[in-house]
Amino acid sequence: MNLRRLACVAALALTVPSPVSAELRRVRIDVPGMDCASCARAMSGAVKKIDGVEAVDLSPEQMSVEIRLRADNRVTLERIRREMRAFGYPTKDAAITARGTIADRDGTAVLDLLNGSTLALAEKPPSPPAGIVEITGTSTFDEKAGERLTIATVK
């Protein structure tokens, strides 16, 4: 390859946007009734097997599970909840840290995690920031309304 062609390829590589990373980063779910240590360990082991999960920390005293996820994961909150419910544990509020874009999908404000999943927002921020943001918030699941995320902070 001649130098001119190599320079063109290098220049093109610098102008093409690189893929962005956005996803769930950390999830802490309240799990009422998590008082059987062996059941909780079995549930924890199943959650750890989800591709993209880095670590699972149980807190039977606080009846909660904290899940740390690897970068560029495709894990959804729905998948985590489903895995936990399979062991008979109802899941309550989930405190999350995630990266994504705030968007409008069919008239509903959502956090688009850019990994194939979205979280519906309880309310759209008054002036949603453009581009990828990191949010912390609480997601509440309701059988009728589904998952609703209330944003606490946006960075």
Q: Quick summary of this structure?
A:
It is built from three helices and eight strands. It is of the alpha+beta class and 155 residues long.
Word description of this protein:
Helices cover 22% and strands 38% of the residues. By secondary structure, the protein is α+β, with helices and mostly antiparallel strands. It has one domain: Alpha-Beta Plaits, CATH 3.30.70.100. Strands 1, 2, 3, 4, 5, 6, 7 and 8 form an eight-stranded antiparallel β-sheet that branches.
Sum up the structure in keywords.
38% strand; disordered N terminus; globular; Alpha-Beta Plaits; 155 residues
Return the CATH topology: Alpha-Beta Plaits
> How big a fraction of the residues is strand?
35-45%
Number of helices: 3
Computed over alpha carbons, the radius of gyration is 19 Å
**SS-based class:** alpha+beta
Q: What is the CATH class designation?
A: Alpha Beta
> In this structure, how is the largest beta sheet organized?
8 strands, antiparallel
**Integer average pLDDT:** 85
The CATH architecture assignment turns out to be 2-Layer Sandwich
Summed up, the domain count is 1
Overall outline: globular
* H-E order: HEHEEHEEEEE
Low-confidence stretches: 1-19
- How far from one another are the termini? 44 Å
Helicity range:
10-25%
